Amino acid sequence: MCGIFGYVNFLVDKSRGEIIDTLIDGLQRLEYRGYDSSGIAIDGDKKGETLIVKCPGKVKALKEEIERLGVERSTIFDSHAGIAHTRWATHGQPMVSNCHPHRSDPDAEFVVVHNGIITNYRELKTLLLSKGHIFESETDTECIAKLFKHIYDTNLKAGFELDFNELIKQVLYELEGSYGLLVKSKHYPGEVVGTRKGSPLLVGVKTDKKLKVDFVDVEFTDQQDFSTSFNQDLMGHDNLRTSQSRAFLADDGLPMPAEFFLSSDPASVIQHTKKVLFLEDDDIAHIYDGELHIHRAKKNAGDSTIRQIQTLEMELNEIMKGPYKHFMQKEIFEQPESTFNTMRGRIDFENFNINLGGLKSFINSIKRSRRIIMIACGTSYHSCLATRSIIEELCELPVVVELASDFLDRKSPVFRDDTCIFVSQSGETADSMLALQYCLDRGALTVGIVNSVGSSMSRQTHCGVHINAGPEIGVASTKAYTSQYIALVMVALSLSNDSISKQQRHREIINGLKKIPEQIKQVLNLEDKIKQLCNDHLNDQKSLLLLGRGYQHATALEGALKIKEISYMHSEGVLAGELKHGVLALVDGQLPIIAFATRDSLFPKVLNAINQVVSRDGRPIVICNEGDDVLSNNEALATLHVPNTVDCLQGLLNVIPVQLISYWLAVNRGIDVDFPRNLAKSVTVE
Ligand code: UD1
Ligand code: M6R
């Protein structure tokens, strides 16, 4: 995931070398979040010159690049602002031109680092191109840098020399999407503005003397005389500034030496200072002359008028995982957000439209194909199984789902008029990559559904969809599954977008998708109940069965894989219809069984299977919809209620309890959840 770091020193002498080291160190503390390139922007030797160094690869490579360029290290700056970034590609592959910081023009009048996605960047880019700006990257971020210059120049021409925070307010007015943002400019030397919307940003403050205050006032634009603040002729720069709160003055009223550390993650600030202020969405932090000001465009009723400066007492390791004990748990709990990010900018919920930029020009070719072959491994294979039926239903094409290794072993026939969809979190899995090569060699159209932008699969497929779930660190795949699932449903929807007869179904599914992030949040509330269930009934078991049919067969298989993989307990996902053909022999009063009995057309058949279990003394754990009590308390070991959604989306909610069960089983058994034995996150061997 992208990371932001900024460092501002005021009346504290620092050599350029020390500033670089602080920025590099800040970036290294963000490395654990996953990234593919990095960069910094600092002051150059000449007045107003900005030096940008950036490169793909590790932060170490950036450090080497700075050395290779022979960047002078000894110049002393008593005041300076530097910004830095680790990038996890979303727009454009990891290459120098796409790395941050991005500049407004060859003179780098404005430089920007950004986390998040600007959803209207295409419109902005078109506008800025028409005004003569020349773009150097494929990123959405670059339009922010250009917009700064454009608005700055326009104001200047009109005779307004804006304060940095007034300028950013005008820029933000034009931006849609999510962002954590830092901006530095030669027009505002030694200053930084930063803001956030849906992406975290905090400011650490370090002073020699104890801070006199533990809060900063919020300055609301609509309470200022905005007309005069715009006009420097009427109201001098200094006038405007002195009228606002000055949090960091010494007793004698003079500015005191101060250092500021801006970051998307406290992990990179904590070694410098424990005094931090977390920005809220739409806050603008403006740092200059040793002062930190927080601005907001508008005051709504109930808005707090201050931001607390908190003292962080956390250890580094705790910060990286937030309130969670493991990355896997963090990733399970990130799913309301990650599923939302998969849909962001791609579904128009009002007009029921789907726009997958990466598939647009291939939709007709896919529709004309003779069949769809979905190919993947492990959890990614399960997301194919989970969505196969809705793809068949909406696209009216035969769909086969293949495990990559088996597909290759069989040398399965592939033709030029086949569309092969490859699904992978890492985009590097060897079996899937070999299968991709096999299909490319045979002339099939290949589509990737991939999390890692710039991965081999994302590059080598003809087209595809990035699922935008953010980096997944835990070996057990959780949030990638739900995002792959949603991406595949979106593919099915876009392949059938113009079918009148499917319109009603489309609307039903799109309405369902809209609610999914919120519904996942509700399911996550089951964690305490699940912990209890594991303690009371599952910790000491040797084996566990999961029963599901129709859409829930994939959920049963995925649940079983999670349980095996991290708790080392034998577990099997069984198609409920197959129970009577053999598996029933295992059922007795001891074997724990999880049965998925949420409402869809197969619900009566699932009830039959559950009754077969109960009549053999089995006491299943039932996962069903709220309001349904499929079995009495005596018959069921436990009932876990999940919200109801459209049949083809129900698996997105049903999988959450089994992710949590596998997690707590593993924790209770003392297993290193994020790194289970014998397994690797990315399986790059055959
Ligand atoms: C773009 C942004 C995305 C943003 C969205 C809406 C990029 C890389 N992505 O997504 O972050 O949410 O606009 O604003 O700019 N591709 C493959 N194989 C794959 C995956 C992708 O070839 O496995 C190709 C696609 O065909 C496309 C490009 O990579 O040409 C980017 O794909 P994707 O990120 O899904 O495109 P958008 O949906 O336009
Ligand atoms: O990166 P991929 O999605 O291609 O990985 C495929 C499997 O190796 C992966 O899903 C594996 O099964 C997970 N560890 C399961 O949690």
Describe the structure.
- With 686 residues, the chain is of the alpha/beta class.
- The chain has three domains: 3-318, 4-Layer Sandwich (Glutamine Phosphoribosylpyrophosphate, subunit 1, domain 1), CATH 3.60.20.10; 321-523, Glucose-6-phosphate isomerase like protein, domain 1 (Rossmann fold), CATH 3.40.50; 525-686, Glucose-6-phosphate isomerase like protein, domain 1 (Rossmann fold, 3-Layer(aba) Sandwich), CATH 3.40.50.10490.
- The protein has 21 helices and 28 strands.
- The protein has an eight-stranded antiparallel sheet, covered by helices on one side.
- Helix 4 (142-157) packs across helix 5, helix 12 packs parallel to helix 16 and helix 18 packs across helix 21.
- The longest helix has 22 residues, at 503-524.
- The protein is globular, with a radius of gyration of 27 Å.
- It starts with a strand and ends in an 18-residue tail after the last helix.
- Bound molecules: uridine-diphosphate-N-acetylglucosamine and 5-amino-5-deoxy-1-O-phosphono-D-mannitol.
- 5-amino-5-deoxy-1-O-phosphono-D-mannitol is lined by residues 377-380, 424-426, 429, 432, 475-477, 561, 565, 682-683.
- This is Glutamine--fructose-6-phosphate aminotransferase [isomerizing].
- Keywords: Aminotransferase, Transferase.
CATH fold descriptor of the largest domain: Glutamine Phosphoribosylpyrophosphate, subunit 1, domain 1
Q: What gap, in angstroms, lies between the N and C termini?
A: 28 Å
Q: Can you tell me the overall shape?
A: globular
How many DSSP E strands? Answer: 28
Quickly give the structural class.
Answer: alpha/beta
Keywords: Aminotransferase, Transferase
Protein name: Glutamine--fructose-6-phosphate aminotransferase [isomerizing]
